[in-house]
Amino acid sequence: MQNSQLRAMQTDHVDNGTMKVQVTSTVGLIPVENARVTISYTGDPESKLEQITTNADGQSEVLTLAAPPVEYSMEPEQPTQPYAEYTVEVEAEGYRPVSVNGVDVFSGELSLQNVRMDPLEVSEQDTKNIVIPANTLFGNFPPKIAEAEIKPIDESGEIVLSRVVVPEYVVVHDGTPGDSTAGDYYVKYKDYIKNVASSEIYATWPDSTIRANILAIMSFTLNRVYTEWYRNHHIFRSFVR
């Protein structure tokens, strides 16, 4: 999308949303105080809208930012992007800079953006760039891979877990099931559910709708954990501490 189109989409017929940034160190997860946080429109890095510093808890103040009207996110086939996208750039003495592109801001909603910074003694000084893809309800993604309703679990002759337990971590394969070159990442189960929910539904929806979707996401994820099917197809692996 051209920068001018994206900018117009975010500034025409404007409502307001809010954003708060939490900055922590990857070592010890301690708050990073006095980190410099710069907010700009994604696709227009020269549009410096806000520049603030974090407090002793590593948190920024709550910022009010332009967002499209809430009605855009309530219609199932709305052609206009229902959220604004912002870039969050964070710098702090002794840490590797971080740039997060594509932070969503919805009308009337608070966006919480966590930023974890690597200390220079354990990382290079080049900026760490993170790009958040479009919400799956609005972005152009390939169709979902078809699956059978009942998955075969007798190919290896066993079930992965002997008891019902919610895992602390899941390992997410960052690619299609057949892509052996894609990386596997250990992600906390709770963080995984939150990340999937935020990329597949809109925060402006009614509370009951959001809860129903999150329960469906949890059910789908745990289905992978409790059967061998995920292992055979290279989609999910998990372990319990």
Main traits of this protein?
3-stranded mixed β-sheet, disordered C terminus, 241 residues, alpha+beta
Walk me through what this model shows.
By secondary structure, this protein is α+β, with helices and mostly antiparallel strands. It has four helices and eleven strands; from the N terminus they run αββββββββββαααβ. It has helices spanning 3-11, 189-200, 207-226, 229-232; strands spanning 15-25, 36-41, 44-53, 63-67, 84-91, 98-105, 110-117, 128-131, 169-173, 184-188, 236-239. The strands form three sheets. Strands 3-2-5-6-8 form a five-stranded mixed beta sheet, covered by helices on one side. β5 and β6 (98-105) form a beta hairpin. The relative contact order is 0.14. The model is unreliable at 228-241 (pLDDT under 50).
> Number of helical segments?
4
pLDDT under 50 segments (min length 5)?
Answer: 228-241
Q: Largest sheet, order of strands side by side?
A: 3-2-5-6-8
Number of strands: 11
> Which percent bin holds the helix content?
10-25%
- The average pLDDT value, as a whole number, equals 83
Q: Evaluate the radius of gyration.
A: 20 Å
Derived from helix and strand composition plus strand pairing, the structural class reads alpha+beta
Strand content: 25-35%
The helix-strand sequence is HEEEEEEEEEEHHHE
* C-alpha geometry: globular
Biggest sheet record: 5 strands, mixed
How far from one another are the termini?
44 Å
Give the secondary structure arrangement, pairings included.
Elements lengths: L2 H9 L3 E11 L10 E6 L2 E10 L9 E5 L16 E8 L6 E8 L4 E8 L10 E4 L37 E5 L10 E5 H12 L6 H20 L2 H4 L3 E4 L2
Parallel strand pairs: 1-7, 6-8
Antiparallel strand pairs: 1-4, 2-3, 2-5, 5-6, 9-10, 9-11
Helix pairs in contact: 2-3
